[in-house]
């Protein structure tokens, strides 16, 4: 199995027809190209928010958290956001489980409750601002953004 990592520049054109490049680290996994998460999130932000060249200075990425022009988002592909949604539901149960009366706790099925929560609207759970989900496609993958 060959895993070769290399860097490539991708060209973008902003809303004012300015051309600019973003350098991305890519791993070739036997013919299947895999981009770094940071490069994908930056490309998705440029596309989704119609950013200009000067706006790239206002982007910060920390894992699945991206700050664009001072506004923080939770962002990633569907698998990343499913995991974030489950983690959010798990944290919610951790914080609120003490409210269950002691005599009812033996009947509380934590996993079923979490599963019910993650079947609810993901945007309302993950978007701390207005409950909306923003999406864009990069290389055929849908990237989701949830304002924090």
Question: What features would you describe in this structure?
Answer:
It is elongated, with a radius of gyration of 19 Å. It has 4 helices and 8 strands. The chain is α+β, with helices and mostly antiparallel strands and 148 residues long. The strands form 2 sheets. Strands 4-5-6-8-7 form a 5-stranded antiparallel β-sheet. Strand 1 (3-13) and strand 2 form a beta hairpin. It has one domain. The model has no long low-confidence stretch (mean pLDDT 84).
Gist?
The chain is of the alpha+beta class and 148 residues long. The chain has 4 helices and 8 strands, in the order βββαβββαααββ. The strands form 2 sheets. The protein has a 5-stranded antiparallel beta sheet. It has a 3-stranded antiparallel beta sheet with strand order 1-2-3.
Task: Fill in the keyword field for this structure.
148 residues, alpha+beta
DSSP summary, beta strand count: 8
Q: State the helix count.
A: 4
Percent range of helical residues: 25-40%
Shape type:
elongated
Structural class: alpha+beta
Q: Could you tell me the radius of gyration in angstroms? A: 19 Å
| SSE sequence, one letter per element | EEEHEEEHHHEE
Give the biggest sheet.
Answer: 5 strands, antiparallel
The domain tally reads: 1
Low-confidence parts, pLDDT < 50 over ≥5 residues?
A: none
- What kind of oligomer do you see? single chain
């Amino acid at each position: 199995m060959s895993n070769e990592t290399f860097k490539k520049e991708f060209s973008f054109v902003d809303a004012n027809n300015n051309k600019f490049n973003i350098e991305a680290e890519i791993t070739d996994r036997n013919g299947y190209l895999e981009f770094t998460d940071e490069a994908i999130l930056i490309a998705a932000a440029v596309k989704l928010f119609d950013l200009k060249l000067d706006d790239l200075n206002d982007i910060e990425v920390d894992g699945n958290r991206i700050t664009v022009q001072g506004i923080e988002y939770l962002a990633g592909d569907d698998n990343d956001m499913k995991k974030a949604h489950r983690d959010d539901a798990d944290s919610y149960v951790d914080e609120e489980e003490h409210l269950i009366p002691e005599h009812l706790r033996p009947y509380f099925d934590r996993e079923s409750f979490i599963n019910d929560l993650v079947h609810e609207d993901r945007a309302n759970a993950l978007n701390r601002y207005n409950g909306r989900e923003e999406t864009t496609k990069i290389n055929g993958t849908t990237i989701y953004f949830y304002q924090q």
